[in-house]
Design a protein that fits this description.
The chain is mostly helical. About 75% of the residues lie in helices and about 0% in strands. The protein has 14 helices and two strands, in the order ββαααααααααααααα. It has a two-stranded antiparallel sheet. A hairpin with a 3-residue loop joins strand 1 and strand 2. The longest helix is centred in the first third of the chain and has 35 residues. The N and C termini lie far apart (about 60 Å).
Length: about 350
Amino acid sequence: MGGGDGQELSTDNVKGIVLALLSSGFIGASFIIKKKGLRRAAVASGIRAGVGGYSYLLEPLWWVGMITMIVGEVANFVAYAFAPAVLVTPLGALSIIVSAVLAHFILNERLHALGVLGCVMCIAGSVVIVIHAPQEKEITSVREIWNMAIQPAFLLYVASVIVVVFVLVFHFSPLHGQSNVLIYTAICSLMGSLSVMSVKALGTSLKLTFEGTNQLVYPETWFFMLVVATCVLTQMNYLNKALDTFNTAIVSPIYYVMFTTLTILASVIMFKDWSGQSLGSITSEICGLIVVLSGTILLHVTKDYERIPQSRSIYAPLSPSLTTRLNGELLKQGDDDRAPDEEKALRRQEMY
């Protein structure tokens, strides 16, 4: 298997690929487990995470999902220390496939023939990206990464992300967060792009430290750790809101598309991943990415949108009371006759 411009994949790249695939499997499963936990918590307390409730913190199933996600994120964290972001991030498409398949069988969220085609496209696009991915550049100190982070181009990107996130959180989220899926997922994705850059910096620092070159003596390492913690906590909060408010098969692909695009953009700016690659390799990577993103969109549109309440709840700015009732319908996955008692109880609570 080749990498870059016809070169063999390096050992580090192979390690990064394996870790990224394992990560995607765990994270995809965690979406489903956490949503089941959010449902149970909402039934028990009557207050959903999407409207500010935090009762899910007392729900064991939610914690099982969180632990599963943490395992996946740790694998993802380590993967970024071995391979470039333009290689690791698109492989997260597998999490969409895992999530969609499990949602089909566990949450009764139907996956149609086009959804299967979307899964195949995600896999095919990922293979193309792996074949043409750039080699990981050798970094000998966290200060090298710091110098990359303070480039004017990347500082402009960071400033833009912070401004947009503040506007979304303090203006659009209170007004349209419950009726437009893009609000919560945009916040997660924007913060996610910064967290990945910091994760790569921190992962590389720890890797060098374990290899004998201590990077913990540098303040830059601890700064990157602080950025990771801040971004991840913000992502967790708004991802919980998105999952509790909207259909899993809608949240997952939209989040993936936005997160992947922004992360690759940030990585290309900061780490200059495409520097030294031929135009053919870069074009192949972009085409592979487009195929992957198209596959996730297919997984998105193959959901059953015949129910007017679902489509209106996601895209129309409705009154708070109507939005609450319609979002209650989003938690009803599959046929009413087969809905679990806990879901019926939840819908009854939300109708009042």
